[in-house]
Request: fold
Amino acid sequence: MNVQISPSILSADFARLAEEAQAVDGADWLHVDVMDNHFVPNLTLGVPVVEALRKSTGIPLDCHLMIDEPDRWAPAYVEAGASSVTFHAEAVSAPVRLAREIRAKGARASMALRPSTPIEPYEDLLPELDMLLIMTVEPGFGGQDFLDSMLPKIRRTRAMIDRHGLQMWLQVDGGITTQTIERCAEAGADMFVAGSAVYGSGDPGAAVRALRSQAVKARTH
Ligand code: DX5
Ligand code: ZN
Reply:
């Protein structure tokens, strides 16, 4: 299982997004947090910014939609150039239909769980998804402390994925740093989002390399 790092531009300088994307060109993905001021109490960016980013970077875009009515809005993010689109379990009406639509349009389909949302009701849906995102903070803001209480859910989800023989990725997002990434990797996560740990550091490229080496070390233990 490969370790993948997805720096979150939520902590980047929004006035210099193209340069900020360049600064992490060793990353596997660029994590784009879309917030609508309804599903979460914060407002960020939408389809036009995703289109502009798509033109200015070769790094595939990992769009995390923290929005109401993803059934209605998610397909436009695939059309805008996202290679992976994540909708929230708490907001979606028809997850199977939406995941199939995202895949049919050519992107990877992913579903996210807030900290208080259990994985168990979704076990039978996993084959419809390419990735599951376990939030390790309450969604809405960067720079929050990692919730250690999410580690058992990560472990249970990894066991479920393996039991079903699925190839899907398990992403964690929120409070991921060189201090916390090892715990997540040991618990079974393989795709790591980091905002402040990357863009809050003086050297984003070096921060990505440091995170990757910590995660690889933990996963080979
Ligand atoms: C929070 C977002 C995250 C955020 C993570 O709701 O989904 O992607 O950028 O930021 P850090 O890594 O600073 O916790
Ligand atoms: Zn995110």
